[in-house]
Amino acid sequence: MLQLALIFGGRSAEHEISLASARFVAAMLDREKCDVIPVGIARDGRWLQPTDLEAALRDGLDATPAQAAHLVVDPAGPGLQLADGSFQPLDFAFPIMHGTFAEDGTIQGLLEMAGLAYAGSGVVGSAVGMDKELMKDVFAARGLPQVEYLVLRDAAARGAAAVAAVEQRLPYPVFVKPVNLGSSVGMTKAHDHAELGAALELAASYDRKVIVEASSPGREIECAVLGNEDARASVAGEVIPANEYYDYEAKYTEGMMSFVIPADIGAGKQAEVGELAVAAFAALDCSGFARCDFFLEDDGRVLVNEINTIPGMTAMSGFPRLWAATGVDGRALVDEIVQLGLRRQAARGSVRTDH
Ligand SMILES: Nc1ncnc2c1ncn2[C@@H]1O[C@H](COP(=O)(O)OP(=O)(O)O)[C@@H](O)[C@H]1O
Ligand SMILES: [Mg+2]
């Protein structure tokens, strides 16, 4: 039996979403192949083993009895040292958390040091995918089509000089975002000069780097990717938010968006989106799984918006629904993600580390 740590919660603003995603993954994991070891990361960063996984995912970590669990970073025998004195060996980790300290290469680095195989992208893909500036620069270097953008950092991201720098480069409306956040947090669509100043101020309060993008009037298309070097794309879907754009409320309130799968864009555009999704995945050296988001403009151009290396995986999330529509149900999906993580670890073992 594979001793699999399902790691959920986390220190980011998306702690709650992680619980919902973990609920889906826990339900889909094949209990005949793996023992699921629950590991919750509290909002303050403590690692805990709840006594009851279902209760922790339903009621939250704070409301569920748990003991402290320390990851033992020992490639010869990775596992968890538990407060009751016992040691739980581990073979695999499935971090299903979003945002900072979760999707950004930090926990992936920790798992590498511990010698554990794990689900999803490695350190580089995760870190670059989380940083909207680096992500867009790498996409640009690979010739992937995107909206115009500029990045302002530190003092240059605030005040009249920042507003002037943006106005010199981009027409209104513009999207102003903290470089390192997700779930539309700290983001504003600024329609004019007055809104831009406040938008920059807000984004700069979340991050030292602020990205400002030309607004695409296009339709929002999402496509899921699965694989390692041999990655393949799902059918593409279209997100139709009830709000002006896909903001936090639209993302996480039931009924605030509709998802059309497959997107009604014709076979040619379906194929183009799939190819771009795999190209974006490969550009960042991603592995396992990801969801790639696009804008389809009126003139037919498909622009890459972003990649999410740990996309939402609740039952209503795009990622599992896109795969279901492609013929890969939840169980097969989660099983393949685990297999891909194991295969990557095995491939790594055959690479020389001496010199
Ligand atoms: N340049 C843009 N043009 C048009 N809409 C945008 C643009 N950037 C963001 N949006 C809207 O805001 C949403 C969230 O932005 P996104 O860059 O995906 O950030 P997050 O990482 O928070 O999901 C998008 O799904 C889209 O609805
Ligand atoms: Mg997004």
Mean pLDDT value: 94
CATH superfamily of the largest domain: ATP-grasp fold, B domain
Q: Radius of gyration over alpha carbons?
A: 20 Å
The end-to-end distance, rounded to whole angstroms, is 35 Å
In which range does the helix fraction lie? 25-40%
Weakly predicted, low-confidence segments: none
Q: Mind summarizing the main beta sheet?
A: 8 strands, mixed
What is the number of E strands? Answer: 17
Characterize the quaternary organization of these chains: single chain
Please give the CATH architecture of the largest domain.
2-Layer Sandwich
Query: What is the top-level CATH class of the largest domain?
Result: Alpha Beta
General description of the model:
With 355 residues, the chain is of the alpha+beta class. The chain has 3 domains: 2-118, 3-Layer(aba) Sandwich (Rossmann fold), CATH 3.40.50; 148-214, Dna Ligase, domain 1 (2-Layer Sandwich), CATH 3.30.1490; 217-347, 2-Layer Sandwich (D-amino Acid Aminotransferase, Chain A, domain 1). It has helices spanning 15-28, 53-59, 106-114, 123-130, 132-141, 159-169, 193-206, 248-252, 266-283, 318-325, 330-349; strands at residues 2-9, 34-41, 47-50, 66-72, 79-82, 87-89, 92-95, 117-118, 149-153, 174-178, 188-190, 209-214, 219-227, 232-241, 257-260, 288-296, 302-308. The strands form 3 sheets. It has an 8-stranded mixed β-sheet, with helices on both faces. A 5-stranded antiparallel β-sheet has the order 15-14-13-16-17. It has a 4-stranded antiparallel β-sheet with strand order 9-12-10-11, covered by helices on one side. The longest helix has 20 residues, at 330-349. The chain starts with a strand and ends in a 6-residue tail after the last helix. The chain binds adenosine-5'-diphosphate (ADP) and magnesium ion. Adenosine-5'-diphosphate binds next to β17. Magnesium ion (MG) is lined by residues 293, 306.
